[in-house]
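During the no-cost extension, the postdoctoral fellow (Dr. R.K.) reprocessed legacy sequence entries with the updated structure-token encoder. One reprocessed record is reproduced below for audit purposes.
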Amino acid sequence: MTTGSVEESQLTMLEPQPTSTRMLDWVSTLDHKRIGIMYILTAVFYLAVGGFEALLMRIQLAFPNNTFLSPEMFNQLFTMHGTTMVFLVGMPVLTGFANYFVPLMIGARDVAFPRLNSFGFWMFFFGAALLHFSFLTGSAPNAGWFSYVPLSSKAYSSLQGVDYWIIGLLIMGIGSVSGAINIFATIINLRAPGMSLQRVPLFVWMMLMQAILIILALPALNSALAMLLIDRWLGSAFFDPTRGGSAVLWQHYFWIFGHPEVYILILPGFGMISEVIPVFSRKPIYGYTFIAASSVAIVLLGYGVWAHHMFAVGLGMYADIFFAVGSLLIAIPTGIKVFNWTATLWGGEIKFNTSLHFAIAFLLQFVIGGLTGIMFAAVPIDWQLTDTYFVVAHFHYVLIGGLVFALFSAAYYWFPKMTGRMLNERIGILQFWLWVLGFNMTFMVQHFLGMMGMPRRVYTYADNPGWALLNGIATLGAVFMAVGTLVFLWNIFKSLHSGKIAGDNPWDAFTLEWATTSPPPPENFPVIPEVKSRRPVWDINHPEYADWKKEKTPEDKGRRGNLAKIAAWSFIASEAVFFLLLLVAYVVFNTKLMAPVGEASSPETLSDVTSSVLDVKRTGIFSLFLITSSLTFWVAERFLKAGKKSAFVFSLGLTILLGIIFLGGQVWEYTGLLSNGISINSDLFSATFFTVTGFHGIHVTAGVIALFVMLLMGLKGNLSSEKTHVFGAVGVYWHFVDVVWIAVFGIIYLGLLQ
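Re-encoded structure tokens follow.
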């Protein structure tokens, strides 16, 4: 990966040399625009797949007691539809738009790490392919896109479908986190001169918030997936209540990721709408600061409301009250944006084209989804409606009525910049009405079905009064949306071949992507425009009305961080959440239950036999080797800065040796446990012990390999004092694994928090 900003002299390195096939040019590309297009095209493909799965389910549900699909096939389609739409359509299409437009909108030549960008895409691509390969095995995942246990346990899903689901999501998760780190580093470090964070376009700001959410939320899912995979493959019992595990823990971990995931999907949609509405209202966005600040509030509150998905679990009155209040509070910053967008439209010179049609439909439909979400913050209402089609309607009004309509709005807005041609407005309006009618026919009636008692996640239903009619309307609406999608694809095909030439800025828009050609050249900009306000292109095209003359915004002080360390710290933040949740699982399963004074103590959940095998003193000695390696690394870093090669090589070699000695101690300990018949499936102590220490050992091994690479570079003279920032980034990681071990040793070996 690269570790610095992309200079003009390096631009030729971003693209491979010409090859004999155009396909190879795309497969091997490092251009952020091409990678963005590949994300979008792959998402469109899976949109067709997920839409086809939805149509099959709607055909099955069009009539009561229908036998079009078997129960097993319905469960597989239901699981794959949800997984596909969330992980293979929603997230990658937004990543695609971010890849294409964030560097353009901040005046950068490329993303911070072009090779990491390519790596992230191909991890997503192959993870998605692996997930759908499960259909070819005859056992696609069938436990729901949320994969609740015990449905996803080996006892109830004995075939390989759930395994494909777990591994596919883990692979895509690696790609998602790497992409988020890249976008975060790009926005923080590669903004054009004059573009302070308070001047970035709101789409860029929302992508920054989304990157933070991905970095901090996805590890919760990864930790849960890791434990579920260990349960299924190695016979542990994290989520098996019959052996002391907890099925509810899966729900906690899944929704710690799952509720921020809603904002991972919708925040970029907010950003898109915040670009479209001002341009076609011919006004600056109303309340830029409020919109930006409210998104920060959403990020902060989004981590504290996950259990409103679990009101029916029985968490207790105080937990229900806490999460109900949090769910109500998070509606406030979301509602602020609706007022800002409405105020921007009010009094504007409205250009009512297809893009704005979709933006206004987004406003109306997202408000409906938001209001039904507030209803679920009332615990008694949630208890009544939680497993009905009312939830299906609410969810789709947020993610289809909101996000998908925002994506269509953005597509009509940015298509001219990406291709140099305009989409056809008449065809666009036809598509708009097909989607508005189809969407509301499909999902508005599901509110009534839910209130009438129709449960969700069922493959058929009895001929109860009104159910067949409403389900028939919903199925017809789904057909309308499918036809509307075909109309959109035809519009793209027709416009690419014979669409009106767009020009560089057909909308007289405001932000930097419109300052370059359509489509942009490989280097994005011949010359980076000067940024003095939040609408730099408006300032250039209308100097007499330039924003900077009448409204002052915070100046850019020119401070930019070190790219390598920004990426390292972002990665550390993600891994810290991963280890935190593994340690939480350890504490939950191994806390000793103390009885009141005068009563007999209840049995300890911690296995005395297993814990007694741990040699605390021996492990403490090996821990000192690892902790000392942080000191020797620090010394090596000082020697590198001073240009003392021999001393640097010696200190770094000693650091590597200390890390290897620590790993040797872990192997010694594992050998002793296994020889005593204690393995990961013995009990909950052994399961959590081997999982936590095993993942830590993997991280230490990765660190040793990275240090060895640094050592080779030092021996060959490729690691000079000018490159200490690269070595320092590796140091951030190495110090992190040491800190994690201090926590592991304290909790597991010394019994802290138990």
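Residues 1-19, 593-607 have pLDDT under 50 and may be disordered. The chain has two domains: 30-524+534-550, 563-598+609-749. The remaining legacy entries will be reprocessed before the final report is submitted.
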